[in-house]
Amino acid sequence: MTEQIEGSLGVAKAVALCRPGIVCAYPISPQTHIVENLGKFVKSGALKNCDYLNVESEFAAISVSIGSSAGGARTYTATASQGLLFMTEGIYNASGLGLPIVMTVASRAIGGPINIWNDHSDSLSQRDSGWLQLFCESNQDALDTHIMAFKIAETVGLPVMVCMDGFVLTHAFERLELPTQEQVDAFLPEYEPREYLTPKEPISIGSMVGPEAFTEVRFLQQRKMAKALKVIEDVTAEYRKITGHHSGGLLDCYRCDDAELKLIIMGSTVGTAKDEIDRLRDKGVKVGLISLKAFRPFPYEALRKAIGDCKKVVCVERAFSFGSRGIICPEVKRAMEGTGCDVKTAIAGLGGRAIFGTTINGIVRAAFEGKFKDEMTWFDVNSNVLNSYTKDGEGVTFPEGPLSDSQLHASVK
Amino acid sequence: MLEKIKFYQTGSNTVGNRLLNPSMRTIQASVDRPNALISGHRACQGCGEALGARYAIDAAMRATGGQLMVVNATGCLEVFSTPYPESAWRLPWMHSLFGNAAAVGSGLASAAKIRAQKNGDSVVPRVIAQGGDGGTTDIGMGCLSGMFDRNDDVLYICYDNEAYMNTGVQRSSATPPSARTATTMPVGEHPGADWGKGKDVPLIAMAHGIPYVATATVADLRDLEQKVTKAMSYHGARYIQILVPCPLGWGLKSSGLTVTAARLAMETGFYPIFEAEYGKITSVRKIRAKQPVTNYLKIQKRYAHLLKKNADPNTVARLQAMCDQNIKDFGLLGDDQPELNPTAIQAYERSQAI
């Protein structure tokens, strides 16, 4: 059924179609509308056999989720930004215990300075947490990915973060097509955990593991991640067959044939980039786009195949690592090791700074003109704002336009 | 509280089982006791927490007909009972983190309810969340209060040994004033833990208006069993705090003094033992033979600095005054049962602050 609705409502409806047993709610923008809608569904009786818990913090939200998932119930919660960080201890615990919780991260910058707008610094801060991280490029992709996420999580035995851009997606009204309850029921049967806490068969979960077995526990956890690559592909194929929706997957290529430059992008920027790439292609510019859907597990093989013999790649990244460089770029370099592919990072869109078609256009032009000398370039930085701080204090001024990493380093010499 | 029994033997609740009707007999004396926490675990000799946990969980097992699951906070009890690949728990048990046992308990209780609802089961397994005083009164306080707030069907048991024993005896908000811990050393002008700090979690629990709150000690195990049994007769959020002396952390003169120390904590008024229902105190365990606080202090090395020759005698006097204040506030002496409205002992401490 096609509806013109807010992304958050679409996701809430998708989650409800999955018949969760527990939904945990704690408000944080821009995730709040999702759990508000789910609360309404539970209270009105539209979503049956579901407990809706208003908790006192995100730490409690993930903790209640840990308990309910260990108790054998399909469990959902949502958060963003500071909330995700407040959960962190539980995030690692949930993956270590192998609990198939599904959680939306309505991606948002981390403070300070406090900023409620979209970038990927929150979700990418949990890169090593042992959760699967699936990024969504549109609201249709987001609602479909949530439904797939439950199946992926329960098949692999690991929790899944569905990362959708805050506000840009969560608060955007779009035409969305929801699968029917019958379709979802056929795709996602009732959750029957292999193991859960019950007096019928008492088990101990979460014992203390010392040096004699800890490495092996981690190895097996990593093995689940490896398994997840195929599971994501299989589940996506099955879902696409049932619904006809082209959502999910490890990654998606757009106009990549014969491309001399490929952009790698995660999240809602993909839509903007597609439009701009269409315009550039019309002018004969050979540029393509890889929408990176799965960040964890990282699809090295699929990406190597998708990049192929293209020798120029730019990752448009909405987060970076302090004291280091981009976060996606080194992963791509690993995938392309020994191929002579040139991989660069363009940092853009931090803290909600809009990435326009013109931004993408500029990145493509700069790439073809060989302007990305360093591995990382601050592409959409505003030197006026910088200079208002550094000129008086240190007598340092920055030129207009993108700033390379070496310009940043030169400025402190 | 335990109903009045005519004692033939010792004048205490150690009256022999054979004199009681079967419903009043202690669970531990039964041949088919649940043994939820079985021997072989790694607790220290004389561990009050292991003793308290075994009695409490077995009582809850009996009360629920074995339909019980336990969530454990990080701490001694968790560490000594589940070194991989072993587990001393003979019931469904899980450990997640240090500060989230109450919230994990909420989730588990919800899951049990939903699963029963979906499967048409009439029996819903019950949940106990448990932790030490650090995991409860400090790092777990937010989740505990949230569980109380939602009135989730969880009994939370705090095994209070008045410090972080698992990490090496550091001060918690349940550490009494002047006590020596690794972070409140007996040095300087005011040796041991500061006065006027800490909180009274049973009273905080009562302020949530939850159905049942009680304190207990391992010196009166029959009373503990009875309180756990009563707690399991209620649905909603419940809280029991059990004083469990730690021979190591308290520096008991011998590991055989655990029960003695707990008894003296009651008999001095140091640790008031009571029950409250829906925010009101409904019964108090009276002091049987009042003891001066020095009798309690002198068997514990954590207070040794108070009894040295050159120690400030005022400190012991203040601890005695604190006990007397508890006796007054909780009506711990005499036979009457007045309506009580006690304040946290920390209020007394703070009002007396130098």
Topology:
The complex is a heterodimer of chains A (413) and B (354).
Chain A: E1 2-6, H1 7-17, E2 22-25, H2 32-44, E3 51-54, H3 58-70, E4 75-79, H4 81-96, E5 102-107, H5 121-125, E6 132-135, H6 139-156, E7 160-165, E8 173-177, H7 181-187, E9 204-205, H8 214-243, E10 251-254, E11 261-265, H9 269-282, E12 287-292, E13 294-296, H10 300-307, E14 312-317, H11 329-335, E15 342-347, H12 357-368, E16 376-378, H13 383-394, E17 403-404, H14 405-410
Parallel strand pairs in A: 2-3, 2-4, 4-5, 5-7, 6-7, 11-12, 11-14, 14-15, 15-16
Antiparallel strand pairs in A: 1-8, 6-13, 10-12, 16-17
Helix pairs in contact in A: 1-2, 1-6, 3-4, 6-8, 9-12, 10-11
Chain B: H1 48-63, E1 68-72, H2 76-81, E2 93-95, H3 101-119, E3 126-132, H4 133-138, H5 141-150, E4 154-160, H6 201-207, E5 212-217, H7 221-233, E6 238-243, H8 247-250, H9 258-267, E7 274-277, E8 280-284, H10 293-297, H11 313-330, H12 345-351
Parallel strand pairs in B: 1-2, 1-3, 3-4, 4-6, 5-6
Antiparallel strand pairs in B: 5-7, 7-8
How would you describe what is shown here?
The complex is a heterodimer of chains A (413) and B (354). Chain A is of the alpha/beta class and 413 residues long. Helices cover 42% and strands 18% of the residues of chain A. Chain A is built from 14 helices and 17 strands. Chain B has a single domain, classed as Rossmann fold (3-Layer(aba) Sandwich), CATH 3.40.50.970. In chain B, α2 links the parallel β1 and β2. Chains A and B meet through β3, α3, α4 and β9 of A and β1, β2, α3 and α5 of B. β9 of chain A pairs parallel with β2 of chain B, so a sheet runs across the interface.
